[in-house]
Design a protein that fits this description.
Layout: H1 6-14, H2 19-29, H3 35-40, E1 46-47, E2 52-55, E3 64-67, H4 70-80, H5 99-110, H6 123-136, H7 141-148, H8 153-157, H9 160-179
Antiparallel strand pairs: 1-2, 2-3
């Protein structure tokens, strides 16, 4: 399972050439939305004051409210202009995007980066990256479950393995420093 490091995620966002591409990347990368949720999203479901997006029931999920970062809300307002209703992202014909179109946008933007495995980057990769960054920044699994609108906690718990990989690598680096005598003595804690 792939995810992006933070520097790669920022590079991907900078590679977007237009506002539509940037919004598709931001909705997946910094808000954890799937390509289906982005495609089904509508302007009238976005609350700019609360920075939330209502996602109505679809065959794969129940009604839920996802948190959206303020920068994405600001960019959406610029992209939408005077439109008060309709899809978040419009096709060239003015209709809504299909989820496959979101995948194509993400993949096209990824081709402009220096990320070694850019052919494998998809909206799902960006969602995993979001989950990893959420958990590394101190977010709880239960709040991530709400953001992803998962019914069961075990659906969200598999994102923990990305964080465990970081814990293992950090621990290995620490043990390497300790074995080379680079770790300074720390003051002992006094209990009582």
């Amino acid at each position: 399972m792939l995810f992006l490091r933070l520097d790669q995620a920022l590079e991907l966002e900078k590679a977007a050439w237009n506002l539509k591409e940037r919004l598709a990347i931001r909705y997946a990368l910094w808000n954890g939305l799937s390509s289906g949720e982005i495609a089904a999203g509508r302007i009238e479901y976005l609350d700019p004051v609360e920075c939330t997006l209502f996602l109505p029931w679809r065959h794969w999920k129940r009604n839920c409210i996802a948190s959206v970062d303020p920068e994405t809300v600001r960019l959406q307002a610029i992209y939408s202009g005077a439109r008060k209703a309709g899809p978040l992202l419009r096709s060239q014909k003015g209709g809504h995007f299909r989820r496959q179109s979101i995948w194509l946008i993400v993949n096209r933007v990824a081709q402009r980066t220096t990320i070694p495995w850019k052919d494998a980057i998809s909206p799902r990769t960006l969602k995993r990256t979001f989950a990893r960054e959420w958990l590394l920044s101190g977010g709880s699994v239960s709040s991530l479950q709400k953001q992803f609108s998962h019914k069961h906690l075990w659906s969200t718990a598999h994102y923990l393995r990305f964080v465990l990989e970081d814990v293992r690598s950090n621990h290995a680096r620490l043990m390497e420093r300790v074995s080379h005598g680079q770790e300074k003595e720390r003051p002992r804690l006094v209990h009582g």
